[in-house]
Design a protein that fits this description.
By secondary structure, the protein is mainly alpha-helical. 56% of the residues lie in helices and 0% in strands. It has a domain of 91 residues: MazG-like (Helix Hairpins, Orthogonal Bundle), CATH 1.10.287.
Length: 191
């Protein structure tokens, strides 16, 4: 035989009485709307809407002009960096070279480090930390050069691919990719 359960009592929400002070026309309607608002579960409090910190920081910051003061600070530095990493790989001195040590640990470790640096860069950019994003971007580019050296890719190959894509719409370029790439990616979102 089933036991009879007692009905659950629900307490009505407490409503604060309206101010007795004089109000502008239409203020009564606003007060009524506040009174009729549904109570939040578990006594949760409503905080006024506030923009996320990263947006407030971005709005407060004035875009700083790039300072290109270091001599030799242009895109050719990537070619020089690739050559340095390649020399470190060939020398194989894991005691003194971070690049050689990283590549000696294998491709999986090389790409893991690249991924870590990319995520750190994304986080800093999302947070609106301009200076930290510059630093993390340099880390990403360095680790990308290590990936290229480890994979046997020369910068000129990537530059040629970028030149090939110049003037081509990104949408058209993605649509022209072979179906095998889309199948390998496991998504139909690429095209």
């Amino acid at each position: 035989m089933a036991k009879a359960t007692k009905p659950i009592k629900v307490k009505p929400a407490k409503v604060k009485p309206a101010d007795k002070t004089k109000k502008k026309p239409g203020a009564k309607d606003k007060a009524l709307k506040k009174k009729t608002a549904l109570p939040l579960p578990g006594g949760m409090k409503v905080k006024p809407a506030k923009l996320p910190k990263r947006i407030r920081k971005a709005e407060a910051r004035v875009l700083q002009p790039l300072s290109l003061s270091p001599i030799g600070a242009d895109a050719t530095i990537l070619d020089r960096l690739w050559h340095t990493v390649e020399q470190r790989r060939l020398a194989g001195d894991i005691a003194t070279s971070h690049s050689a040590r990283l590549m000696a640990r294998g491709t999986a470790k090389v790409v893991q480090k690249f991924g870590e640096e990319a995520v750190e860069c994304i986080i800093e950019a999302t947070m609106g930390n301009r200076d930290a994003t510059v630093l993390e971007s340099a880390d990403v580019l360095y680790h990308l050069m290590v990936v290229w050296v480890d994979a046997g890719i020369r910068p000129a190959e990537v530059w040629a691919e970028l030149a090939r894509r110049q003037g081509i719409s990104g949408i058209a370029e993605k649509a022209a990719r072979p179906a095998g790439i889309i199948r390998a990616a496991g998504t139909t979102k690429l095209p």
